[in-house]
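**Backbone description:**
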Amino acid sequence: MTTRPSSSQPLLDLPRLIASVRRGRRLWLSLALLGLVVGGALAVVLPSSPTAVTKIIVLHKDDSPTDSGTLIRTDVALLQTTQIAGAALKAVNSTQKPEDFLKDYQGLGLTNNVLQVTVKGTSAADATARAKALADAFIADHAQRNQAAASAQAKALSDQRNQIQAQLADVDAQIAEKEKTNARGRTAGNATELETLYGRRAALTAQISDFEQRAQQAGIGTPQIAAGTQIIETPRVLPRSLLKTGALNSGIGLALGLALGLALALVTGVVRDRPVLRREISEHLGASVIAQLSSPPRGPARFWRRSRGVTDRKRIATTLVRAIRSDAGSVSLLELGCPKVTAALALDMAAELDEPVALVDDLPGGELRTLAAASGSDARLVAVDAPPAEPEERRIGVGSVSPGVAWTDLDALGEETVLVVRAGKESTLWLHTVARQLADRAIPIIGVVVVDPDPRDRTDGTLWDGLHTALRGRAAAQRSTDLDVPETTPSVPEPAGDGRKIPDSEAPTRILAPVKPVAKPQQGKQIRNGVPRRPTPLLHDPAHKGELPADHFSPVTGEKNAEVS
């Protein structure tokens, strides 16, 4: 027989992903709450170490109003070196490694010349002492670097002066030799050379004097920088507020927990193949969704929302009773992830029927018997192997198709079935297995009742190729019976691919008699008394209770009775 063509599924179904995140709100809300509680608890169990802060004014030789903060950033980088950390630890006689001490303090440039140092310690006194030692070590290092630069500059000037003095000594030697030559016999050429050498000696002497003065000034250094770089705020311990620390840690824990929960919900929504939307459930089970029922409320909400849930369940039971009342065969309710809701729905159906009802209890957990005893229902509870009921007594089977339940008693529960499925409970593979098992046993699925659906699900759960089992097809058949339309013999299914005829017993669903088509109104303009008139629109018969005419849908053939793949 023909199979239903598989529809292409997108790689990332955004509506399904959003629905999975909404259904996993208990997970990410719980993780967010856990992060909030853990963050607040850490503030009490593991309080922060005492912290001391001090401020240093730092003067630079190249200070300029147009400086963009490069010099102070350099000072911050120098502060966080093992040399200064080691000098501070040596001042407080600590055996801690400089590499470890670097993690306990940090520097921050407030302005171009103000440096703030924050230090952690084991106690308030220890933090204050370390902050003082660290500031002193930085000031000493800053002054030493400036003095070293001045000394280097003075040495360079002294070396330059010595070179010029050597040149001056050479010029003096030349002048002495020329003077001896002139004493023996004055010539005009020697006098000119002497004048040049005298000018050279005077220039070198001036340069030597200049370099000597500059070297002396450079040797003095920059005492204003050394004196100006100092601690301007005595180290003090920062006040610790348990409330602020707890609020900060709780906020961080809340954000981390919420992010982790949302990430887990998104990942599980993609990885776990558990249908949530009505469209997916109907496609995988091969039956239309005829009703949906919210799960029983939890917590305090069960006190004021209980009546609403009971009303909705009774309304669905009335709909199901109206659908099966005209059929003399037995019907079963098979649960998938919601045994209590299925048992309550079966009891409501038994109360709605105006005839003796026997409920076949095949639920593994005994929920039906417990609810029947608690509600005082008049329905008779029988076992699966009980003798056949009397002709006037209707049997409604209540069973389960959850994983781990045997399939052997499905035929004894009812000739047709209504699946009560909890959204997002089972995987796609198991839904296919349920549909295949029911099809192999020739048990038609009247429809699916979805429990705990997504409240924002806007997908359509109706299959348009199952008119012979859908509620609208049964309603049309009932109208045909009311109009005394003779029941015709079901059409013979189309031959299989190998040419053989498929008997009716092998069809996955029971084929009902086709419904007599309703004549359509003539399209186009109508002329009455010579005046063109618009065609009368197709009106619904009020007795049909909102059902569309049977010819609105495609006719049922053997090709429509495809097994659920």
